[in-house]
Amino acid sequence: MQLSETDRKILNILVDNSRLSLRQIAKKASVSVATAMHHTRKLEKDGIIKKYAAKLDYEKVGYDVEVMIEIRISKGKLFDVEKKIAYNPNVFAVYDITGAFDALVLARFPTRRQMDNFLKKLQTYEFVERTETKLILNTIKEENIGVF
Q: pTM for the complete prediction?
């Protein structure tokens, strides 16, 4: 889909702060409120804007353990296993990847014990051949990017 300059402005404004009112978005984008509303609704309808969400500090709410789990999955069963993993409420991302592993899972847990239980359960899933877990020590940057 081809984005207009107004679409790009609105998307960049929303990436920075999705709580702004249409009036505030219009002012920042230098367009009318009606134009801002029209473009925003179209971006939502077209699935470019998927949802509006708060950015949480997970450490402050008790989720101190963050991990990346690489998984090797038996041939032909990748999507089945990924879907099963994605249902876990601690998992916030599942990716198909290239290289020695087939999938990458990002997850957060309140305790090491809960992470350990999840990993042990994951290793019992049929078609999971191997896992490698990396504990994330510090997050240096984690942001949405704008549309340029």
A: 0.86
